Amino acid sequence: MRKLLHHITIVLTVSTMIFVGGAGAHAHASAADTTRVVKSADEKVVELAVSSTEKRTQRSFFSSFKGFFPFKANNVPNDKLLSSVKVFPNPIVDQISLSYRLDKQSSVSIKVMDALGNEVMTLLNQELDAGPQSHVFETNNKLTNGFYFIRVSADTETVVKRISVL
Question: Domain span at residue 154?
Answer without folding.
Answer: 82-165
